[in-house]
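Feature request, filed as a ticket because there's no other form

It would be nice if the structure record came with a short human-readable summary line next to the tokens. Right now we just get the raw output. Example of a typical job, pasted below so the devs can see what we mean:
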Amino acid sequence: MANVYLLTGSPGTGKTTVIRQAIAGSEAKAGGFYTEEIRSGGTRQGFRIVTLDGHDAILAHVDNHSRYRVSKYGVDVQNLDSIGVVAIDQAIEIGDLIVIDEIGKMELFSPRFREAVLKAIDSGKKVLGTIMLSPNPFADNIKCHPKVKVIQLTRANHDEVLREILDWLK
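Raw output as currently delivered:
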């Protein structure tokens, strides 16, 4: 049985929602992070990293003038390393469940993040996360890893996938 469950799918299918519902419905000691949109006046301005122990930082923003860019967003790799990677490392050390939402274009700019993902997969602990749907050499290798089960989430299978993950977490 896989010790890593990664959700993939189109934007807006509820991947982060399923992750958060699974954490809330589980008794596992979870650590790591999830991402959420930053909106202003109904328009998406960027993305924030939120750790399960209450820290947060901007991952990407339209006003960030980073050399790392995805679409209109400048990516803050330093925030990812100091908040997201640290949260993964702490979860590996003291948690039962490592949450990584998400393994995507923005996060993959960080070599430290890529190392943390591999370390989490090899830790033997349960890992629950999301991974980009589109092709990417690093992400594609993760999807093919023997310890990884990838589930494509749709609006239609949301409840079924949540039940499967909650059963896996027991």
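Something like this underneath would help us a lot:
The mean pLDDT is 96.
Helices lie at 15-24, 77-94, 111-122, 137-143, 158-169.
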